[in-house]
Design a protein that fits this description.
Shape: globular
Oligomer: single chain
Number of strands: 16
Helix content: 40-55%
Number of domains: 3
Length: 475
């Protein structure tokens, strides 16, 4: 209806994506700087407050309560993403504008910096925002976000619910042309710049409805069934109930005690190779079509959550098979790269083995921080601020790279990878890619690029220049 709205949730997950797109701002009671809400909002350039622990959300009554009062749907609130404050009432705001001084400063920064600055972008609009802010490529395109648009989520759910590989392949065949169009649109925007596309990463249950929502629907259907009088209505209701029960059973089958460390990333591609093959075909068909249009494409396929060099080689073989098949059909060959995200400590420790096949590394420092420190980025808001306040740690490791711990894995992985492959391209694509302190460390470690949300690209460009100047001063 064109109204300005703020989405308020206990916490968000991929199923909330459409609401996040429609909202002007987002507030969650749980989460931290790298939680789902924070990452998605940052990528969209939307104001967001996460970890508002004093807020209690009541979905049934469409309200939330705080020590200072109760807010119901339709009430005015204002939020300050810098301070994390949620203010009651409507506060007047001023939209900032970029002037000539900004462009002059950025040109000076670009002349000085040595590292490239890319952006995390999941669609053509994100890619355009990234280019407008001076990004020199896409360092992370999260393909899973494409599946939540329009009717695609229903097809994705059909794929997940498929009883056998044939049915799964049929559902994937309906998704493939949609992904191809998405990638083609991104290649068109990023003409002449590299585009790093991460294959499917989240566990499959994230694409299914919430369990409590399905239970609510089943209950309502049973109430309707109790009052039904005609045989036709009864049969229709029973069909709906059986369908919902099947979805519930699949949700229960896919449920994991710790999904962040469960069946996700390249593990999905190993168990369901047809998913990897479909995404590879979509990438290379889009790349070939873009090339035929005169666009310079630089596709980089990234395999997520690799722990073993064997599973990485398994996935690379599938990607290269599909690439060769498409190049042969179109009688056109393109240069491309296949690499991996280093987001598990074991991957950093065995980087020399992985680099025998990988052509680039991208450190996913969000998950690498979680897996190294044993901290959930969605739960740290409850206690981590107390650690900082009491001097137990200096800074939030999800905002500023933990250089003594996680940073050493980044350094080790880079060095070991380049021992095997001296020309190995290395970057980071976690939220640390937009943090000046972390960028200084990346420069000192010899990374080729950093990647951050499009709206943090100017900060990263400036920080990369400062890192170069700091090195010059030290020399």
């Amino acid at each position: 209806r064109g109204e300005a709205v703020i989405l308020v949730r206990q916490e968000t997950n991929p199923d909330d994506f459409h609401g996040m797109v429609a909202a002007n701002a987002i507030v969650t009671a749980r989460g931290g700087m790298t939680s789902h809400a924070a990452v998605v909002a940052r990528g969209m350039g939307k104001c967001c407050v996460v970890g508002a622990a004093e807020m209690v959300v009541d979905y049934g009554k469409q309200m939330f309560s705080t020590p200072n009062g109760v807010v119901t749907r339709g009430d005015w609130i204002s939020i300050d993403g810098n301070s994390g404050n949620v203010l009651l009432g409507k506060v007047k705001t001023i939209a900032p504008a970029l002037d000539d001084n900004y462009h002059t400063l950025m040109s000076w920064a670009d002349e000085r910096r040595q590292m490239r600055v890319r952006a995390n972008a999941d669609n053509a609009a994100d890619a355009r925002n990234a280019r407008d802010r001076g990004a020199e490529g896409i360092g992370l395109c999260r393909t899973e976000h494409m599946f939540f648009e329009g009717e695609r989520i229903e097809v994705m759910r059909e794929m997940i619910m498929a009883p056998n590989p044939l049915a799964r392949t049929e559902a994937l065949a309906r998704l493939e042309p949609l992904q191809t169009e998405d990638f083609l649109a991104i290649f068109r925007v990023m003409n002449g710049f590299p585009v790093t596309i991460r294959l499917l990463d989240p566990p499959l249950h994230e694409f299914l409805p919430r369990q409590e929502d399905i239970l609510h629907e089943i209950t309502n259907l049973k109430l309707q069934l109790r009052d039904a009088t005609s045989l036709e209505t009864i049969n229709a209701l029973m069909d709906d109930i059986n369908e919902k029960n099947a979805i519930m059973a699949q949700i229960e089958r896919l449920a994991e005690a710790n999904p962040m460390l469960g069946h996700r990333g390249c593990r999905l591609g190993v168990v369901y190779p047809e998913i990897t093959r479909m995404q590879a075909r979509a990438i290379f068909n889009a790349a070939v079509q873009a090339s035929e249009e005169g666009i310079t494409v630089q596709p980089e396929v990234m395999i997520p959550l690799v722990a073993f060099d064997t599973e990485f080689r398994h996935q690379v073989a599938l990607v290269r098979e599909e690439a060769e098949r498409i190049f042969t059909v179109h009688d056109r060959r393109l240069d491309y790269m296949v690499g991996t995200m280093i987001e598990l400590p074991r991957a950093a420790l065995t980087a020399d083995k992985i680099a025998s096949t990988a052509e680039f590394f991208s450190f996913g420092t969000n998950d690498l921080t979680q897996t190294t420190l044993g901290l959930s980025r969605d739960d740290t808001a409850r206690f981590l601020s107390g650690y900082v306040a009491n001097g137990l740690i200096g800074e939030d490791p999800f905002q500023h790279l933990d250089q003594e711990g996680v940073g050493q894995l980044v350094r080790m992985g880079t060095e070991r990878g380049r021992q095997t492959r001296p020309d190995l391209k290395v970057g980071i694509c976690g939220e640390h890619g937009g943090d000046p302190e972390s960028i200084q460390f990346c420069h000192e470690t010899g990374l080729n690029y950093v990647s951050c949300s499009a709206f943090r690209v100017p900060v990263a460009r400036l920080a990369a220049a400062q890192a170069s100047l700091n090195q010059t001063t030290a020399d």
